Amino acid sequence: HRQDPPDQGYDLVVVANRLAVDRVTHDDGTASWRRSPGGLVTALAPIMARMDGAWVGWNGAPDEELEPFDHDQMHLVPVALSADEVQDYYEGFSNATLWPLYHDVIAPPEFHRQWWDAYRRVNVRFAEAAAATAAEGATVWVQDYQLQLVPALLRTLRPDLRIGFFNHIPFPPLEIFAQLPWRREVVEGLMGADLLGFQRTSDAANFHRVAKRYGGYAFRSGQVEVEQDQTSRTVRAEAFPISIDTTPLRQLAADPQVQERARQIRQDLGNPQTILLGVDRLDYTKGIRHRIKAFGELLDDGRLTVDRACLVQVASPSRERVDSYRQLREDIELAVGRLNGTYDTMGHTAIRYLHHAYPIEEMVALYLAADVMLVTALRDGMNLVAKEYVAVRGAGAAHSGVLVLSEFAGAADQLKQALLVNPHDIDGLKDTIMQAVEMDTKEATRRMRTMSRQIATHDVNRWSKEFLERLGTGTA
Ligand code: G6P
Fold this sequence. Notes:
Helix content is 43%, strand content 21%. It has helices at residues 39-51, 83-102, 113-131, 150-157, 174-177, 183-190, 201-215, 246-253, 256-268, 288-300, 323-343, 360-369, 384-393, 426-438, 441-457, 460-471, and strands at residues 10-18, 21-25, 31-35, 53-58, 69-71, 74-78, 134-143, 162-166, 195-198, 223-228, 231-239, 274-281, 309-316, 351-354, 372-375, 402-406, 419-421.
């Protein structure tokens, strides 16, 4: 059934699983909100301030009913999830069904009808919250795999809206998507949008095939006419590769305190000639095991030694109540412990493993310290860490540093001067790591300069602007 626009609606409504703010608890016990870090929020905040924007999302804790509030020139509309819904919709269907299914079934996806019921129920709740927030004729931009049913649900409630959807993770090939018992419902959910955005052209092509097979939608040149209620509308599905906000990274890279911190890090590691760096959420899609295996074998073979090279692996805690993530942590920590037990000396370590999240200042210092950045994802929608490294290394006069980048990360479509690898090919990965370690500065500089220009001209502001313009929404 239809819903009337609210009396006081917003012209641009972003709908995402997570709200754009995090709660911070102060020493005196009081709490306040702080804008979340991360490119999406940074990119959309200024547009939201200009356009009278609202953000609909979950605040990350179970069983909390919060009233809408304003923060930082943004209107925030919290959606509540019960503890059971966190289990079934978030940890279950989103992160133990869709996440592994969409990432090439690296881990086996689990299909449970109870999880699907919760997913549908929670998607209805998000759609209703968006319908109650958007002004007449407003634009609603739905984000990511947790909310694939929202576009069609919202169109039924509010046919007056412009609806966009962006999938931040890969969209799988038909043969893999076919496993999903609710494949038709997901296709119909997405087809409620006017514009569907994907990271890679191959993701958009996968969706075109899936939409044909499971919904009969024949996309041509990325678009199809859909008949509904005796009217016809156009649905587009195209690639819009996401990027990062380079300005704060470049500023920090030029900050003498951050540069000093980078020198300190190298010294604390015992001044190895080469610092290799991995930065990931602790996720089985990131290929952390493959990276550690390759590095370990290079030590076994004597092609690297611990006084020459050290691998710093930042693995930020993620989805810790989902089984496959628990198992991954066990595996990684066993592998790191074994390797360090074998090769560490009093003054040097093979792998400095850090199971923490760090503030952006510390991350930039790490990027500045790292001679070689290892991004070995087995499948990744984009991988913004690769782009952050390039933005930081390309900021100074030196333009040095080597990026080893998996061809299975979306970023490989833009960062063609990286050393591209197939992380499943351990011998190839080992040789590529050695090529990176031994690359002369001139060649490293040439590659980094080209990539840094790519990122500078294709930042996240351009991404959001292009998406919203294509959707038919002016953002000026
Ligand atoms: C990926 C997804 C996002 C998600 C993020 C963190 O980047 O595309 O939608 O928010 O991971 O995961 P989390 O489960 O903590 O939100």
